[in-house]
Specification:
This protein is mainly β and 334 residues long. The protein contains 1 helix and 21 strands. Strand 14 and strand 15 form a beta hairpin.
Length: 334
């Protein structure tokens, strides 16, 4: 949670820039604007009459700008330069070092003005949900929040997930998960990764788990429609279960990410994250999985269907092996 707050507090609003960029839409409209960034099929722009706005990448047929941009392709290549008038579906880049490059818009997955501020490179969201059942006066409260900074070579993510369950005939149950991660991106979709995680799950009698480690990963697929990635490494784990002595261990970690997002006008995102931990000192396997389907229904507002699964192959005696949950939330993205 502190990492999420720190990332937001360190950021500063982007000063208004000149509206010298031009985008041509599939329906024939032409917009003069300031391009902020392209990420996951969404182009963020600023216009004088509309203020901030987002346009699906699939609706754009041509871009022009005298400013220099960092342009990323699905192959992992980067091009640096301004954008000249081009045929529909293409982008002609006047390279900073001289020369021209003709790119296909369908191959472009990232676009950021060179020299843009820290704030302009941040994406984030926050959503919450609540449910109530009259039987036993049972309530469920869910809160999720995340922020991500994406640059040409580095990417930082922080997230918070909280679920609280109360009922009149039982004690309150809390599940909290705070994670921080950073990546150093290399050529050919390779990257190094470091992550830190804090967990609490009273359903599994877990008072605290702290994880810290790192490894190497690779994006197997990264296009304007999907991101499939896998990584592996080593982590140090500190655990405290209720009524049990604290334990420390070294674990091998293997993780994966399967994200799908639309390039069309219907804005939805499906994200799937799974990490398996293998204890190197005893026969124990743990699995952490998170999934969500997020659908925008109003500008910057969305609904989300979320699920999680926590599995422990060798918990303390008489404790549960598994905890699973589903929630429906409403949220806002920035």
């Amino acid at each position: 949670m502190w990492g999420l707050c720190g990332l937001l507090l360190l950021s500063r609003p982007l000063a208004a820039g000149d509206k010298v960029d031009v985008i041509h839409l599939r329906n024939g409209d032409r917009l003069t604007c300031e391009i902020k960034k392209l990420d996951r099929s969404m182009l963020t722009i600023s216009t004088d009459p509309l203020g901030g706005a987002t346009v699906h990448w699939g609706e754009i047929v041509r871009l022009e700008s005298p400013r220099n941009f960092d342009i990323t392709l699905g192959t992992g290549e980067h091009y640096y330069g301004s954008m000249l008038p081009a045929a529909p579906g293409e982008m002609i880049v006047a390279l900073e070092g001289g020369g021209m490059a003709t790119l296909m818009l369908a191959d472009v997955i990232g676009l950021v003005p060179i020299g843009s501020s820290f704030w302009s490179r941040i994406d984030g969201n926050v959503d919450s949900g609540f449910s109530y059942a009259q039987a036993n006066n049972e309530t469920h409260l869910t809160l999720n929040a995340a922020a991500a900074y994406r640059g040409p070579k580095y990417e930082f993510n922080t997230s918070l997930a909280t679920q609280i369950t109360t009922r009149e005939d039982a004690e309150r149950l809390k599940r909290n998960d705070v994670s921080l991660s950073g990546r150093r991106i290399f050529s050919d979709h390779w990257y190094t990764i470091a992550w830190n995680q804090y967990q609490q799950n009273q359903e599994l009698s877990l008072d605290l788990r702290v994880i810290g480690g790192g490894g190497v990963g690779r994006d197997l697929v990264h296009t304007s429609r999907r991101l499939w990635s896998t990584y592996g490494g080593l982590v140090y784990s500190h655990e405290q279960f209720s009524g049990e002595p604290a334990a420390q261990s070294l674990e091998a970690a293997v993780g994966g990410q399967l994200d799908f997002f639309t390039p069309s006008k219907y804005d939805f995102k499906i994200t799937n994250n799974v990490v398996s931990y293998f204890n190197l000192s005893r026969k124990r396997v743990r699995l952490e999985m998170q999934n969500s389907w997020r659908q925008e229904f109003l500008k910057d507002f969305y609904w989300s269907l979320n699920s999680f699964d926590s599995f422990d192959g060798d918990p303390p005696d008489e404790q549960k092996h598994n905890d699973f949950g589903v929630s429906f939330t409403l949220g806002w993205k920035f």
